[in-house]
Amino acid sequence: MSGFAGAVDLDAWPHLFEPGDVDAPVLLTLHGTGGDEREITALVPHLWPGAGVLSPRGRVSEQGMTRWFRRRGEGVFDVDDVIVRAGELVAFLEAARERYGLEGRRIIATGFSNGANIGLATALLHPETLDRVVAFSGMYPFADRDPVGDVSAVELVLLNGAADPMAPSASVDRLEQVALAHGANVDRRVRPGGHGLAQSDVDAAREWLAGRL
Q: Is 182 a catalytic residue?
């Protein structure tokens, strides 16, 4: 897929890494708008005890808030930037695999809101690098476009509130339809309520992850 091409300097990209157990996966934790690399790492022991943690910080600033990609308004994404930033995240993952000796360990993205969206975009565009995503309050990241190829190796769990104005059901419907049309395995769970991260989401994510390996 098109997008960012090149290497990244890990020393210049703020991130956290905790190795966890060598026989456990590494959870790539991706924060929401205004968060940082520490925002959702506390979830990891509740999702997979012993998992490693790889947590980068988004590199876009919007009125002082950290994000993963640009947007033109609430829910209106700059799709070209989404594609480029997904490529950057791939380059980050490749550099981190080498530095931290992660070859052979599964990396599973776990993202909230804007972090869920970049995780979804990366898996749908670069399934050879990232093929499992836990998406809390995520939505379709490509607006009216469909840049997705064969994603038959990809597995997604979509965890959303039924009345979420920031990740509306119509966009999640679109996400599910496109991912399925291109071969992905999609598990969608809907709870009452809006944008956020409920205990039922954590419980569902833990159950889903337990079935992956």
A: no
Single out the catalytic residue among 31, 55, 113, 126.
113
Which is catalytic among the residues 81, 146, 169, 195? 195
- The pLDDT tens digits of the residues spanning 75-126 come to 789 999 999 999 999 999 999 999 999 999 999 999 999 999 999 999 999 9
Please state which CATH class domain 10-210 belongs to: alpha beta
Quick check: is 164 catalytic? yes
Buried b (16+ CB within 10 A) or exposed e, 24-39: bbbbbbbbbbebebeb
Give the tens place of pLDDT for each residue, 137-182: 999 999 999 999 999 999 999 999 999 999 999 999 999 999 999 9
Structural domain boundaries of the chain? Answer: 10-210
Active site residue 15: no
